[in-house]
Amino acid sequence: MKRLVILGGGESGAGAARLGKKLGYEVFLSDKGKLADKYKEVLEELGVEYEEGQHTETKIFTADIVVKSPGIPDKLPMIVGLRERGIEVISEIEFAGRHTDAKMYCITGSNGKTTTTLLLYHILKEAGYDVGLAGNVGNSLAAQVADNLHRVYVVELSSFQLDGMFRFRCDTAILTNITPDHLDRYDYKFENYARSKFRILNNMRAEDLFIYGYDCDVVRERVEQENIVPKAAGFTYSADNRLNAYMDGNTVIARWGERTFCIDKKEITIQGRHNVYNAMAAILAALKAGVSDANLRKGLTTFPQVEHRLETVEVIEGVTYINDSKATNVDSTWYALDSMHAPVVWIAGGTDKGNDYSVLFDLVREKVKLLICMGVDNKKLIDSFSPICEVVDTHSLEDTMKVASTRAVSGDVVLLSPCCASFDLFKNYENRGELFKEKVRELKEFCD
């Protein structure tokens, strides 16, 4: 019996354990941290041996194959040691992909990938497709392959997941954009990070489709320089009708094959330039999938807001509170500020990832009346923006909300778009967003 070792016991790890048991592997799961109770229950129900709070190398190095959580760096001595011993180390997505022939619609990019993933899934589901949602959103792909197999999957892929994928093939791949992010995992070399994103093209065939953001210089230049095997379809916010998706005034036009689909951007439920990009990518993928015009329009006009991504929480005494906690890098915040049409009280801060804030300066001058820095150490933000707008330094969500509610007036927007990771004050960006929404709703109750 072959031995499967799983490193990391979250959603992907528990899913890999479920698939491994179904395939007849001897399964052992190891997590350096503490396992959540719901995942312990899954492992115990499956009869999987596991450990938490440590990695026992004598048990790990006996593996025939290892499925590694994307959060574990490849440079970790234990991972290096596994590979030196010739033990294959792969991601959960790679493991699942080896055991299904379902069609894979996969999305990556520095920004926009979650919204694009959820939008495409919504369109296909509303159109009646047998479709599953997996990757960074939805349930584990491996668990679904084991117990709830669909004919089509829409999969959000991070660069970390792509790094652990070797034989996996996308039928349709979307690359939204590439901007500096996670450089600490890539030797602080942007080229390494960009190369990781382009791994989404691995193993694709001439009949497959690669959809890419033409307006991103890094993506466009690589597409033009490299020999791209699948058919390539670019999308742009400009009126360049040489591309497969482009703008004609306020109308989004998308073409694939002999079909052309048009929709006024105001009809799409999610607004802002960044969401036009997301919609274009999803439309092109849906056209490739054969979704009818009527079902495409239905999907685009019924798609709900994405949690933690420009999510309107409440309007209190004329002030609109927006949760954009998922904006953990500069580019995401650029799109958030660009979509604002009212004076902004901007809340930013957290764990800086080597950010260059200069690309935000013009937008901040134009749109921001007050920046509230919320973090343990806000020096870099303060130094960067003090010459441009008024800045207030806070070190807790409570203090931040006091300042925001005092300074914002009717007609203003209070925008949480942090530009930074959340780990200094919060567990993750979801936790940051949830707590922000709680505080906003408490404020509404008080004002009512």
Overall geometry? globular
Q: Give a short account of the largest sheet.
A: 6 strands, parallel
Distance between the termini: 64 Å
Strand order of the largest sheet: 7-8-6-9-10-11
CATH superfamily of the largest domain: Mur-like, catalytic domain
Low-confidence stretches: none
Helical content (DSSP H or I, runs of 4+): 25-40%
What is the fold named in CATH at topology level of the largest domain?
UDP-N-acetylmuramoyl-L-alanine:D-glutamate ligase
CA radius of gyration is 22 Å
CATH class of the largest domain: Alpha Beta
Any guess at the CATH architecture of the largest domain? 3-Layer(aba) Sandwich
Number of strands: 20
Q: Oligomer, anyone?
A: single chain
- Structural class of the helices, strands and pairings? alpha/beta
- Estimate nothing, just give the exact number of structural domains: 3
- Tally of helical segments: 17
Describe the 3D structure.
Residues 107-286 form the Mur ligase central domain. The protein has 17 helices and 20 strands. It has a six-stranded parallel sheet, with helices on both faces. A six-stranded mixed sheet has the order 15-16-20-17-18-19, sandwiched between helices. The chain starts with a strand and ends with a helix. Helix 6 packs across helix 11. It folds into three domains: 3-90, 3-Layer(aba) Sandwich (Rossmann fold), CATH 3.40.50; 94-302, Mur-like, catalytic domain (UDP-N-acetylmuramoyl-L-alanine:D-glutamate ligase, 3-Layer(aba) Sandwich), CATH 3.40.1190; 311-447, Mur ligase, C-terminal domain (Protein-Tyrosine Phosphatase, Chain A), CATH 3.90.190. By secondary structure, it is an alpha/beta fold. It is 36% helix and 22% strand.
